[in-house]
Amino acid sequence: MTERPGQFPFxxxxxxxxxxxxxxxxxxxxxxGTATDTNKLFKERFARSDGRPSLLLAMDLPTQVGLxxxxxxxxxxxxxxxxxxxxxxxxxxxxxxxGLDSVTSGxxxxxxxxxxxxxxxxxxxxxxxxxxxxRIVLQNDPLKEYTGRGTQIFPIATALELSTDVVEYVxxxxxxxxxxxxTCSTQMRWGGVSASQEIGFGLANxxxxxxxxxxxxxxxxxxxxxxxxxxxxxxxxxxxxxxFRAARRAWAMLxxxxxxxxxxxxxxxxxxxxxxxxxxxxxxxxxxxVRTTTHVLAAMLGxxxxxLVPGYDxxxxxxxxxxxxxxxxxxxxxxxxxxxGRAADQLxxxxxxxxxTDELTEEALEWxxxxxxxxxxxxxxxxxxxxxxxxxGTYRRQLELESxxxxxxxxxxxxxxxxxxxxxxEGNPNAEAEQLERVGGLRASRPEAPVGAALLALQAEAxxxxxxxxxxxxxxxxxxxxxxxxxGEIFTVLREVFGTTAAPTVAAGSIA
Length: 512
Hints:
- Helix 2 (35-48) links the parallel strand 1 and strand 2 (54-57).
- Helix content is 52%, strand content 6%.
- The chain has 512 residues and is of the alpha/beta class.
- The protein contains 21 helices and nine strands.
- The model is unreliable at 508-512 (pLDDT under 50).
- The radius of gyration is 22 Å and the shape is globular.
- It has helices at 22-25, 35-48, 61-64, 88-94, 113-126, 142-149, 156-174, 186-190, 195-215, 220-224, 237-259, 261-266, 287-301, 321-337, 351-373, 377-382, 385-403, 431-445, 448-467, 474-482, 487-498, and strands spanning 27-30, 54-57, 104-107, 135-138, 178-179, 183-184, 229-233, 271-275, 306-308.
- Helix 13 (287-301) packs across helix 14 (321-337).
- It has two domains: 1-22 and 182-409, Methylmalonyl-CoA mutase (TIM Barrel), CATH 3.20.20.240; 31-181 and 429-504, TIM Barrel (Alpha-Beta Barrel), CATH 3.20.20.240.
- The strands form two sheets. A five-stranded parallel beta sheet has the order 1-2-3-4-5. A four-stranded parallel beta sheet has the order 6-7-8-9.
């Protein structure tokens, strides 16, 4: 090999030394119950961390789809799979005693990025922390919701423009310590697509966002310097190492083709990972410790920048504190004790890894071109193409499991007997009632005139956006947040103006 780590097209990594290993060790993605409940979890994890940990919020389903806890559709879901964040008061309670300038924080919230961005900004203002002293990570990836998660709210074109509002606002107003958007491909991989499709489809999504930002005057190099591709790390160890290498190479080639060599050299692809939680089994869950270790190993050897790992018990419920601690210990043992990742691209030159990298690069670029021929990712999603590919892949895997062609230890191979029961995380059983009381108290105590005026102004600004998609709504939503409007009140206004959407239907014949 003539290419060295840090050299274009960055197959071997974007740096001669590889990623900073400290980024591998200190990230927690969690949330449960009320803001007070999650504050306790975060304080425990903050106390156990060295340096500046990443405490990223997992929000409950009602929050993610813009509903208040007293909405009929929220019944039974409040605080269940994440923390309920109904207003600015919840964020302030969540970080009580944890300075927003002492952690990296943020959230997924892909359909509600226009709300979560000013939520964190106003929380900083209220606690005396300047935006430049905060490190906030907003996934803000609405295309993800239409390709796997199902928490989309608006028509896809509107959702894209709202997410670009956040990108534009952050780049022009809040400074370089905020990450306003990153592209996620995990949901497509978990939904059934292949490794090469994960690359091709993920890069097509990222290209959609780069070009949307460019239409607002954001330079592609500036955009790319503050984003990443968030991928899965799956079962096939060498195949996944090659996948990460191929993704960097394919992206460099695509950026050179679309934006020029200077941009491609200045903005190599950064990859972050959530390891394959979809591969964890409820049967014999301790086997998952070995599974996640191989997933982490692939990510480290593949030179990714950040690794989030599900607990071995997440097929049964939210992870316990013990399981969460083990996920970070896994990364530290592999690095400090096994020496994995101490040099860039440790498997570079392996005949098998190089062969797989070449194959995956070629296949990924072919899939990218398929999407381009369909008119781009928005069209491919809207017409159901991505869903059809995901469904077909899931169907094939299920057939392989049922026939025994694919063996999963503890599920259809080896010891499949009953395992010793594990301690399961138990959340606050009163979280829903407490959140209902909290929101009721907020509405009773806040001055109503500023809230009503802010929501009326938001309606007017949203109407302007219908005529001019580039009209930025973040300031108007921020005024609502500051007035203590709730997430449900804000998104009721936006739904009335923009309408709503649903996932496309996949024809039965597409999975044959």
